[in-house]
Design goal:
Blueprint: H1 3-25, H2 40-43, H3 47-55, E1 59-62, E2 75-78, H4 88-98, E3 102-106, H5 113-116, E4 121-123, E5 158-162, E6 176-180, E7 188-190, E8 199-202, E9 208-215, E10 218-223, H6 230-233, H7 238-245, E11 253-257, H8 265-291, H9 309-323, H10 325-343, H11 352-363, H12 367-374, H13 382-402, H14 410-418
Helix pairs in contact: 9-10, 10-13, 10-14, 11-12, 11-13, 12-13
């Protein structure tokens, strides 16, 4: 026997031992995994009950509110906790029942303000607990840790109910039902001096699980509510019990009102008052804009580089009043000399006639007129003074326009600011 066969035999033995260990160490059991609801059943908790009643030949109608009442002789399965949000609904519901309607409600709605005034039902007292026997209590058995968190039994909420002989049986097959529903402490019986109920179902301890009483020409049925839901309807006899409670008959109409579904308030408000909303929002936006903080313009405004006429007149008059006309002429001549010194080469070294000729050549003015205007010793009357000042200022401005701007001294700036334009 070569090494290859040895390896094969050892491998088979190892696999066999592992298989035996898995069989002895594990336990296989069936587990029910609920299938998630889909389609209409995912959105409608009463889809199963409605489908069942349709199969029985009933006309099923789903409504989102109780704004309108069902037709006469119809069945109304009412489960909405907010059905009584409007005061007039209780009166309308009572009139509909008294005219022949059949109302089916859960026990928790009976105590509502709009129902308890006219329903001939009173809360049933809970039966007293049996007296404990005067025997020494047995010692408690210690629960293993592995069993403390086990899930409750599958049908722990199921119990038997029976139709008493005093009421007609719902089905020919018997009077007992196995019902799986939520436990409720709200149990009701007919009020004093009221006729006996039309139908009841009692539990093992004599408690009333469901009851139907007459109101006018119609009926009101109170029953446990959890069995109507999709996950409970197919359990035990819940479907039969629900059909008995709703008095299922082929061709009858049954309405389901299980919740109050309203149009969103903002959408409803927009559809009915959009004009007022638009005006209000515009007014609010305008008020916020008026109350907002101002941060100034996007760019600084350009400053004015020239004085106004009023400022020029006031400045010239003040200078003349303080220093006289000769001082004004001297200031204007000094401003012209400063401009010529910057613009004309060799201006400082020339005599008065050469300076006037150079300025005349640069500005296009007459040389003789400039000589007369630049002569500070010549006597002048008011008219001649005005003409000479205008000639000097015109020459200065033309010189400044022909070359780049250069800052003037404080003396020339002061004299130029006071000169007339």
């Amino acid at each position: 026997m070569n090494n290859t066969w040895v390896v094969r035999i050892v491998s088979v033995l190892v696999v066999a031992l592992v298989g035996l260990w898995l069989v002895s160490a594990t336990e296989w059991a069936d587990t029910e995994v609920p299938t998630p609801a889909s389609g209409e059943a995912k959105k409608n908790r009463f889809y199963g009950a409605q489908a069942m009643l349709r199969e029985l030949g009933m006309n099923v109608v789903k409504r989102e509110s109780l704004d309108t009442m069902p037709p006469a002789q119809a069945r109304l399965v009412l489960a909405s906790s907010y059905w009584d949000m409007f005061p007039e609904r209780g009166k309308r519901l009572r009139e509909w029942v008294e005219q022949g309607g059949h109302l089916v409600i859960p026990a928790y709605l009976v105590s509502g303000e709009q129902l308890e005034d006219w329903l001939p039902l009173v809360r049933e007292k809970q039966p007293a607990a049996d007296e404990k026997k005067k025997t020494p209590p047995e010692p408690k058995k210690k629960t293993p840790a592995s069993r403390r968190f086990d899930p409750p039994p599958k049908d722990a909420d199921c119990h038997a109910v029976t139709e008493p002989d005093s009421v007609p049986a719902s089905f020919a097959g018997g009077r007992s039902f196995r019902v799986c529903a939520w436990w409720s402490s709200s149990r009701y019986k007919p009020a004093d001096k009221q006729p006996p109920p039309l139908w009841t179902a009692v539990g093992a301890r004599g408690t009333t699980e469901a009851i139907r009483v007459r109101v006018g020409r119609g009926t009101v049925t109170v029953m446990p509510w959890g069995l109507w839901h999709n996950e409970n309807l197919v359990r035990a006899d819940n479907a039969l019990f629900a059909a008995a409670a709703v008095q299922a008959r082929s061709g009858a109409e049954v309405w389901f009102v299980v919740e109050e579904t309203r149009e969103p308030f903002m959408l409803w408000l927009w559809q009915r008052g959009w004009v007022a909303l638009v005006v209000g929002m515009l007014a609010l936006a305008f008020a916020l804009w008026r109350a907002a903080v101002r941060f100034g313009p996007l760019a600084p405004s350009a400053g004015t580089h020239r004085r106004s006429m009023a400022e020029q007149v006031r400045g010239t008059a003040g200078f003349l009043h303080m220093h006289g006309a000769d001082a004004l002429h001297a200031a204007q001549l000094r401003a012209l000399n400063e401009s010529a010194r910057r613009q004309l080469r060799g201006y400082v070294h020339r005599d008065a006639a050469a300076r006037a000729a150079a300025i005349a050549q640069a500005t296009g003015l007459e040389a003789a007129m400039l000589v007369r205007a630049m002569d500070g010793a010549r006597p002048r009357h008011a008219g001649a003074m005005a003409v000479d000042l205008e000639v000097l200022e015109t020459a200065r401005r033309r010189l400044d326009a022909n070359g780049p701007f250069m800052p003037r001294s404080s003396a020339s700036s002061s004299s130029s600011a006071q000169s007339t334009s």
